[in-house]
Amino acid sequence: MNNTFSPVKSLEQIILPIAAELAQFEAFFEKTLHAETEPMDSIMQYVLDSRGKRLRPILVLLSAKLFGEVNEQTLRAATFVEIIHSATLIHDDVVDNADERRGKSSVKAKFGNLSAVLAGDYLLAKAMLLLANPGDHAILQEMLSTTATMSEGELTQGSVGLSYHGSRCDAPQQRLPQCGSPTDQYLDIITRKTAMLMRSCCTAGALSVDATPEQVQQITDFGLSFGILFQLRDDILDEENIEQAKALLPIYYEKTLKALEGFAPSEATAALRDLTVFCANREI
Question: Engineered SS bond to 101: which of 26, 84, 106, 139, CB 3.0-4.6 Å?
């Protein structure tokens, strides 16, 4: 992108308004992943040591800070989304036979396929337990619906492939009905497999602090556009669907920033704007 969307702050600068809350999240996340027996606890420790940017929990925390104060329900929601994300990556590496994740050996490569599948299942069970209280029902319903949508997106991607250089939607073994234009289907797949989880991060954060329905909808709209923007940049970095991703990235950059215009000025609003700029420019 050559810093078209500058100035760009570092992620460390962007998350300063929620530094204390992120520390609370990390402690809660580590406690939640602890297993009572070996070798599961060793695998969970490996997952903890292989952490990424924590982008999804950051979205939960910032969305909560827009409308209130981070609380235990916010931390449970943030931990839920990071666990779901981690479980998905572990299972994906088994399906894709991937030996590396974030510059380290994948769980599948280090511990074997069976252990990786069971570890992913363990994480999913842990996630369900987090939001088992009646007061968490709205957030759990949002998250479970999104998890199902993500699976559909991954399966659709595997069925039709994500290479849209022609004018048709050709599947290697089957043709899905009503494919639409290549760009439409590309957007549909990245929305399902990536953007919906980021959308739900924002929704969950707002729900955890009893935001109004109007506020929830507004931050949800931001989250969806942000998630699409994130995946577009990801595809450019991975040299996949570059032509479409480069054409769509400026559109979704503007759309994501526009979604923030209705929020009152605050540290959280500024951080979400800076995070949008960061993701549009990131190199890793």
Answer: 106
